[in-house]
Every structure is written in structure tokens, then in C-alpha cells.
Amino acid sequence: MSEKYSLYNLKSFHDNFDQILTSNQADVMDFNSNNTTIVWDSEYQNSSEDTQNSFAWSPDMWLRHSPIVTAVYCLAYTVVFGIGIVGNCFVVAVVFRSPRMRTVTNFFIVNLALADILVLIFCLPATLLGNLFIPWLLGLFMCKAVSYLQGVAVSASINTLVAVSAERFLAICYPLKCQMSRKCARRVIILIWLFSLVVAFPWALYFTLSSIGEEQLEDTMLCVEKWPDEVSEITYFVVANLCLCYLIPLIVITACYFAIWIKVWKRNIPGEKGANTGKNINIQMEAVMQRSKLKVAKMMVVVVSCFVLSWLPLYIIFTRLKLGNALEPGSLEERILMISAPIAQWLGASNSCINPILYAFFNKKYRSGFAAIIKSKKCCGTIRHDNSSPSVFCNAQRSTATQRSNRMTARLDTQCEYINSIAVL
């Protein structure tokens, strides 16, 4: 049976602890968790009256790290959990309580928020426990269920980011040919969840409990992956985890936003050429367009950078663990990975905290909705808030243009439609 490391729940990253315990080369077990060292030798065992026949592993020895490091981990994970839950819940509430916010783009944003809530609920607590304690404390069912739900939630979150970028690409680059309907958006969301349920299913099969291996510690269990063979394990990691849940989404997201950037920067305001009237209006519209272009460029850089920085460290670590040679117990590389792995996990989970800030809080409509919910005395029901956007400017200019000519009004309608399609990014 092949036992290696899980991807999103790094509980099984510490399977290496199993190798250290079962080593026959020494009687001393040194668990490399910063300054925390557990010493176990025959002299100590024989000198204790309480452990003449067995080694008593006290709860104090369950901790992987020193109290200071443990406190830092708890604080960091708690901050991400709190901000992420509150932020994503606000996103869902704004869309469902404001009928005017129920657009195709916002459907995907809500699905992203729901997926991120699941990531925060199922990934963060279990991951924190795995980083703080050596044994798995929650039993076989939770070992399988938590591992599976983690895979589903992370896959759904990442692939929803792909759907958001693809929908924006179609709306801006092909506004008349490929507009996505609400019905189509619902189907895409269903497909995202079905795909996530299927792609993570092997974790429900192959995650199980495994004893540490020593007779004295036979009741101490770890939650680990046990595959029938190493080839199957590596194939699943490369195809399902690395490619389908990171590399391909990264390529699609980058390509979509790059295409949007090219489209916006190369295109003039529709109807601008050949116009001999309304010169002042065109100047004002051009100023709005330039601000929108800068917004698109900034959005592209921020979206791609956040996605890469959030998940890249974790995938680098697991590519090394899955595809590289076994770690040497006590080596410098092992020490580095034991410290960096929890940080990489935290960065991956923080993407679920960043998403509502990135896709919602920077949007004036969402900010207005958040303020309306806070001011509202009702916990449910419809809210009304300012949904103003560049269309306010367009309406004013359209009113001016109507007084001049119907032709200019039609041209401004085209211009405003184009500007509004950019403004919802």
C-alpha cells in the first residue's frame, strides 16, 4: 500500500513522523517541530516506575510545536476564518436581498462565496488540528468525510474563479454573440459542483486511519492516504490535483483577463470615429473609458497574482513530496518543509478570505449593499441601496444628446453599454 501526503489537508504530510518512529537505526525519536523534541530511549523507559511495561504518551507530547508557535498558528487561522466567513456571508446576503444584483456575474460570485465558506469550514479547523497535534483525534468517519469535503470545496472554489473569468471574457470580448443567460449560468454552476464531487471522490476511498506502528503507540492513529499502488497515487495527483485544480485554471484565468485587457486597450469608444458633433461629450466619455481601462488592467494583475501566490507554495511542496524521493528523517529539507507547509496551507485557505474582498468589496454596488444590510433592522427581506454606476453619467449625457440628434443618442447608447460592461469587473 502506498502512503504519502494529502494535498489540501496536510494532516498526512506528517506521515513522515511514522517513518521516524518506526526507524530501527536509533532508540531516540526526535520530532522536528521547531523547539519541540520528544526523547524516547530505553534508559528513560526503565527508570520510570509508571512506564516499566509501556510507554505513556501524555497529551503534552501530542503537540507538534512550541506554545508560541502554536499560538501564532491559532491566531493566523482564526483571523482568516473570521474575515472569510463574515465577508462571504455578506456577499451572499447582498445578492439575495437585492433583486437588482441578481445578474449572471453575481450568480458566479455567490457560488464562489458558498464554495469559499465550505473551504473555511472544512479545511481550516481540520488543517489547524493536523498542524498542532500529532495524532488524528476525530475518528475514521471524519477522516474520510473531512478529506473528501475539503477536496470538493477547494475544487469548486477554484473552478468558479475560472467561470467568473470566462463569463467576463465573453461579456466584454463578444458582447452581442455570446452573452450568458441566467439559465446557462445555473447549468455551469451545477457542472462545477458535479465535477468537484467526482474529482475528489478518491479521497473518500483512500483516506483511512493508520497506527503509528510502535507497540507502545498502537492506539495512536494518523489520518493518511493509502493507495493500492504508487502509480495510481501519482497519476491522480498530477491529473486531478495539479492539472485540473491548478495549472489549467491558472492558464484559463490568465488567458481570459489578458484577452480582456487587449480588447479594452485596443478598442476606441464605439461610434467615435467620424463624429463631427458632440465633441465635449466624447471627451468626457473618453475620460470614463480611460478609467475603466486602468481598472481592467489592475483587476487582471491582482486576480492572477492573488491566485498564483495563494496556491503556488502549497503545490510546490506537494509536487516535491509526491514526485520526489522520500524525505530523510532529521534532514534540513524536512525541517524546512515542516515549517513552511502550515504557512503554505494558510496561504491557500486565505484565498477564500481574499475572494470576497477582490470580487465584491472593490465593487461600489456591493459596498452599498453591505452598508444597507448593516443599517437595516431586519435580518431578511429585500434591501434597497444605491446601485449607481457609470450609467448615471451616461444617462445625463444621453439626455443632452437627445436634444441634438437621435443619431447621437444611438451612438451614446452603444458607448454606455460598452462602458457598463467594463465597469462590472
From TrEMBL:
Its main location: membrane. The keyword Cytoplasm does not apply. Residues 87-359 form the G-protein coupled receptors family 1 profile domain. Pfam families: 7tm_1. One of its GO terms (molecular function) is neuropeptide Y receptor activity. It is a multi-pass membrane protein. The keyword Cell cycle does not apply. SMART domains: 7TM_GPCR_Srsx. It comes from the Eukaryota. Signal peptide: none annotated. GO terms for cellular component: plasma membrane. InterPro entries: GPCR_Rhodpsn, GPCR_Rhodpsn_7TM, NPY_rcpt. It comes from Leptotrombidium deliense. This is SIFamide receptor-like protein. Keywords: G-protein coupled receptor, Membrane, Receptor, Transducer, Transmembrane, Transmembrane helix. It is found in: Membrane. CDD domains: 7tmA_CCKR-like (cd14993). Belongs to the G-protein coupled receptor 1 family. The chain crosses the membrane at residues 68-96, 108-134, 154-176, 188-209, 234-260, 299-318, 338-362.
